[in-house]
PhoH family protein
Amino acid sequence: MDGYDRKRFILDTNVLLHEPLSIYSFKEHDVVIPMTVLEELDRIKDRQKDVSRDARVAIRTLEDIFHDATPEQIIAGVPLGLKDDEASGRIAIISDRHLPEGYAVFTDDEADNRIINTALYLQKHHGGSKAVLVTKDINMRLKAKGAGLEHVEDYRSDQLVDDIRLLAKGFCHVEDSFWDRVGECESETHGREVIHTVSEELLPGAHINQYLIDDTDDFAGRVIGKENGHLRFVDLGRERMMGRKAWGIQPKNIYQAMALDALLDPHIDMVILTGPAGCGKTLLAMASALEMTIEKGIYDRVIVTRNTPEIAESIGFLPGSEEEKMAPWLAAITDTLEVLHKQDECMDGSLSYIMGKANIQFKSVNFMRGRSIQNTFVLLDECQNLTASQLKTIITRCGEGTKLVCSGNLAQIDSNYLTPVTSGLTYIVERFKDFEGSANVYLNGVMRSRLASFAEENL
């Protein structure tokens, strides 16, 4: 390989915390870990926080690579060990405390500055390969560019879309009339369901469990199969979908109707709901949870969980049980339960009865690890703040007979290092769009109030 095609990626600490195995993501290129990064990982690994687990995984990964290396080999770089065009480069640790005189742009002894100085040193000292600083800290990227570093990047190997507008919405809107475009097609009846087969050319790029709607008031369908250039879809009927109810809740628009159809289908193991604040994600999910747990008896219990950065730090100091500790962060769920029972004569009594009958449990994301959850309706709320690896941890907890609903608004990310395109929610939407056991619906339109709708559009 031409030496000028080879790059040296200098990794910041937050990259290893975001994805502990990120060192294997740079293919044939070399990876450099500044000593400051190891020091920061060491400080983080013993904290009583969720992030300390990722720090320990990163440290163990580096130990596995360097355990037999001599000090000279560590500085020069050792092979990452994965061939077949995957991670065939080298990895080195470089001391950034004592760089040769004249290379330090920043003189104050701060971790970010030492890492930037290291990248600048490698840029000047190793002309045979590009030095690229990789960090998820936006301000650090700006500082590095301002200091003269030519190549600065975000860590994007778990980013599947370049523009959030390209994210799969879970439905395909056909202009005018769908049937006018189809003409004749093969149809078959299975019990109460009618299944049609059309050419895949009619709906290029369609994926399993994608909903189909048009501009008329009577057509709605869902793709259930793709084979030999043909698509099979079940005819749902818009009027039937709009007339469905869950725990007394009826959809207010076709987007809510599609979401409700996926939520009430026991054959769909995971439903991903995205959309603006006030579009009905949590309300529909809770109504479906109660309907399928209490009325239909499909699930034994309901677990509600969400990620908030403060929980890991402060939950232990709050009084009460885990459910009581979680209550302040899950107020959105209790608000939803109140809306579902606001017509009851004694709402407090109804809520207590329902909480017991549906066995509703409030859990922290941190306590979901290591569990195997069976026959449960799991609602993971606000998951736009989770990384892809965190979501993988939760999804892999779901055992037989469990339905997982992931909901979130990509416009309300609170995490320091996540953007709409790097959020774990975006990642699973793209990864699961062709999985027959999952459905994704973007709920278009704010149903909360005209005030909320105006704010969403104009602020």
Observations:
- The CA atoms of residues 6 and 316 lie 48 Å apart.
- The first helix runs from residue 13 to 18.
- The mean pLDDT is 83.
